[in-house]
Amino acid sequence: AGAVVAPDPGGHLLRTVTGAGIAAAVMFALAIVAGVGLGDVKLAIPLIASAAWHSWPTAFWAFLAGWAFNAAIVIVAHLLGRRQTHCPLGPPLVLGWIFAISLINL
Q1: Which residues lie closer than 8 Å to 17 by C-beta, 6 or more apart?
Q2: 10 Å Cβ neighbour count for 89?
Q3: Global confidence as pTM
Q4: Cα–Cα distance measured from residue 97 to residue 91, given in angstroms and rounded to the nearest whole number
Q5: CA separation for the pair 93, 106 (Å, rounded)
Q6: How far lies 102's CA from each of 17, 20, 62, 93, in Å?
Q7: 106, 89, 14, 96: which is closest to 59 by C-alpha?
Q8: What DSSP designation does 105 have?
Q9: What is the mean pLDDT of each run of 10 residues along the chain (106 residues)?
Q10: Distance CA 101, CA 94 (A)
């Protein structure tokens, strides 16, 4: 039995694969240069891919919002006197993805 492949007139599949590739490249480069954890890299790939399924702006805002939420957490931690050298990026990335999926696609 063979699989039936449905046509993709909206280009969702190509956009999803391209978004995953871009996310992988950017996050892996940041892992090498800036010390981003590989778990964060592995998490960002499906998040950005699923956001790219909707649209390029959704993928962009998901990525940007995740980093913005992380920056806000680091700033608040510094203001409270907590000078930690590592802040997990995973939860802010998920929050950015939720933001982009729910608010950008209204």
Answers
A1: 49
A2: 23
A3: 0.84
A4: 10
A5: 20
A6: 21, 20, 10, 14
A7: 96
A8: T
A9: 61 92 96 93 96 94 96 90 82 96 81
A10: 10
